[in-house]
Structure formats: C-alpha cells, structure tokens
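User: Please predict structures.

Assistant: First:
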Amino acid sequence: MNKLIACLVVMLISVVAAVADTEHVEERVKDAGTVLKEILDIPDNIPQDLLDKAECVIILPSVKKAAFGVGASYGRGVMICRGGEHYQGKWGAPALYALEGASIGFQLGGQATDFVLLVMNPKGAESLLHSKVKLGADASAAAGPKGRTAEGATDIVMTAEILSYSRNKGLFAGVSLEGSTLRSDGSANEKLYGKRLTAKEIIREGKVGVPASARELVALLDAKSPVNKSAPKSLR
C-alpha cells in the first residue's frame, strides 16, 4: 500500500511539473508578443518597408548573459513566418527557437536584452527550418537600420538574409549577432504543442494550429504587416 501511494505521489509530481513547464513555454510565447508590440510602438522602430518584406520574424525576450562563461549567453523565443508556398499568406503558428553565442554577451553588458530578427528571404528561412545556423557564416546577417523607412541603408544591410535589433534598458538599436547561432528548440516545441514536431512541420507544413498563447502575436503581425511586399521573383 505504501509503495502504491509513493508511486501515485511520484506520478502526481511529474504531472504537475509537466504542466508547470508547459505554462513556462506558453509564457515565453506571450512575452514574445508583448516585446514585439512594445518595439513596434517605439517611434524610431523597425522600418515598415523592411517588416513588410520579411518572410519570418524571430523574437527573443530577455536574453541574458550566462554565468558559466565570459561573454557566453543563451536566450529562447519564437520564430513565426508568413504562410503559403511562397510566404505570401497570413502569419502562422510559431516554433520555439534558441539563440546561443559568445559574441552576444559582450553586447548585453550583463543586462537582459530583447532581440528581434527579420528573416528577409526564403533562403534564410529555409536554412533556419532545417538546421542549426551560425549567423554570418551559414546565413548572412547585419544590424538592422531604424526609422520610418530603410532609405540610406547600406548594400550589406539590404542584401542580408537576417537583420537584427536589440532593446536594452529602453534603448532600441540595430545590433550585430554575427558568430551567434540559432536553432530550433525541439523540447520546447513538444511542450507547447503536446507532441514531437520539427520547426518545418510547424511553420511550413501547418501540422498544428496557432496556440492560444500566440494569438496576440499573430494578430499583431497580421495587423501591422498583412501583405508580403517582397519582389515576387525573390520569393521563388
């Protein structure tokens, strides 16, 4: 009898822990929506024409410098893309992603930093959907320009596959994340959706619907950038 009770207690603890972990992942998705809304409300924010040409957006709330190494850091957030074969549909369900890299730590200054990355072409998106990507090596990356439009941006910025921005202590700026890596967070995706799924299955194959925790984020992007304005040839 005592063994049975002990087994039941262990099972109950496991269930409670799993539910708490799932709620933690859901909070991360909600935080991503909050961060993006706050950044898009900044007057000198991400240029609208760049947002309108992005196939995907990656939001990483509160990336922190880790204690295990000088400059090392780790952050988790979401990647969300436009639907359809050529990224011309509405924004779809998000996949959870992780950002890692030594270079981030020196820029954070020990403070939590929010990051927003724009994925500017299908090549960059497909790279992120299939494997771990090192920014600046596997995918070209640049600090994103700010302001109402991207006029005056350099050729490097305009041809980059990924543009990155940061917000730290209320300051918003383009920031270089070269040398850092992005990868799909498989365990977090499983906790959010209740089954094993690849980022490609979530984002491109539509095997799951938009979870409740991501509805505000999806609605925000549908309102702020409902149409992909990239040149049609660049999407094929």
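Second:
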Amino acid sequence: MKIAIFGTKRYDKEFLSAANHDRHELTFYEPNLTGKTTLLAKGFDAVCAFVNDDLGRQTIEGLHAHGVRCIALRCAGFNNVDLAACAEKGIKVVRVPKYSPYAVAEHAAALVLALNRKTHRAYNRVRESNFSIEGLLGFDLHGKTAALLGTGVIGAVAARIFRGFGMRVVAFDPYPNKECEELGVEFRPLESIVPEADILSLHCPLTPENFHIVDNAMIAQMKRGVMLINTSRGGLIDTKAVIEGLKSGHLGSVGLDVYEEEEDLFFEDLSGTIITDDTFSRLLTFPNVIVTAHQAFFTREALERISSVTIGNLTAFEEEQPLENEVQA
C-alpha cells in the first residue's frame, strides 16, 4: 500500500522505516498536511499525520478527491481531525491510543522538579561562574498535594510518581480510575480539588467541553503560588489568563510542553527567526516558566511503539481486518 507521511523529521523516517520492514511503500514529506498540501497525497492509498497537521474539512475533501482512503495518526490525540467530514467521505481514521504513558508522565515530573528547584536558572548561573544560591529556594514535595485533571493511562502513571514523592494526590475524572483509587488517590469534583493543589497537572484529552478549562475563573480558585503543569494539549489552557496569573503572582510557576498555537512554532528550528506570536513571547519572559517543545512523548520506547502500532493499523486497513484503533465521529 502507498502511504504519504507528512510533517516528518529524521526520527520519524528512522523509526517508521524500521517498523515497516518494507511491507508498505512509504513516502516521506517534510511539509505538514493542510488543505494546501493535499496534492502531495495524490495517488496514495493512505496518509500518516501528526498533532500539528490540519485535518479539517478542506483537507479531508482534498484527500478524498485524490483517492486517499485512510488517515493514520501517529499520535493519541485526534482533536485536529474533522471526523464528521471523514465519515461523509468514507475515510477511515486510526490512531495510536497508547505508546508510552511513562514518557509523558515522567516529563511532567521533570518539569515539576526543575521548576521547584530552579534547575534551569541554576544551570545558567553556574555556566557563568555564578555560584550564588539566592533566589533558588524550593520546597519539599513530600507532604504536598498534587491535583490531577484526568487519570487515564498517563494520569495513572503520574499519580504513582507523585505518590512516590510522598505527596497526597487528589483527582478529577468523570470515570475514576480504580488503579488510582487503590494507590490512595482521592477522586472529587473539580471545584473541590483545585483550591487544595500545590501542583495542578493536566492529563486529559482536549474536547469541546474542556477547551480553556484553565481560565481566569479557575486560576482565581487556585491556591496562591500553585504550580501548573500541562503535558496534554495546549487548548486546555487560556494562555492569556495564565500570563495574568503569573503577573499577579497568583501562579507560582508554570511548566508547559504544549501550547495552543504551537503548530507555527514547535518541531522547527526558529533560532534565526523573529517570533511574531506576542503571547508566546511574553510567556517566555517569566523566570518561573519552563516551556518545552512538545517533547514529552519523545523517548526511544515511545517512538518504537508509535511506529509499530501505526504500521499495524495501516496493515489492518489494507487487509480489511477489524480496525482496533479506529476513531469515529
């Protein structure tokens, strides 16, 4: 089967090619998939897309016109896909629901530790022969409260990590995770856990219902000095509200691996470019903010899993087998 893979980097080609074992004909494209780049998919049976590809109606209609019958997402999230348009055009959509929950949860913990102990600032000081520790005061995680929004596979791993630090863990999830309950996680309503959190960590998918769930109103409910962590989807956070919370001192620190307008920024080397996103640029001015470029998933184990499941999904489609990882409207 002929597959066009969009938005590819060196590591995508390496891991997908290794998982493919010459089973399918893979063509790698650097540009992202958008309504304007669908012509590149002409003559292909399927396309492979990632989180920053635009799979809105215009793109779906273009793919359908060029004969594409399947979209394979090499990620878990599918909020960038117009599933209704796919259903109308008869295009199947498959994804990778699980790859390495450890990778993402461990990255969330890394952000917590770096922000708390100001590791990023200490690193820069020492490189300049400044060995002062003034301004680097942190706090013991032990005995503090971590609040989790979402306790799926990633949230459950995060819960185990925070419990390992000796923290009290509270959580909100419409579908409480029994594994977390056995760990001693307390499930309560959202408005109940937010004011108690010393650390608030997001581990939920982005849906229309929780878009900008972290807004001015929620921040006002938080404990002054709270640490906010987001390794899920950028749209969960109203960035302008977060900036106001940082300016007022209500938010003590913020760690982000995702940003709601990241498609024009992340996964590219823009070191020689002037960033025109003023909101993002303002965010980077705060010394108590760490932003990483959507790398939480980026471990060897995760890439191997993503690639093998993606190729498996495409093979199942070609052989007309049940699509275990299909996403439907």
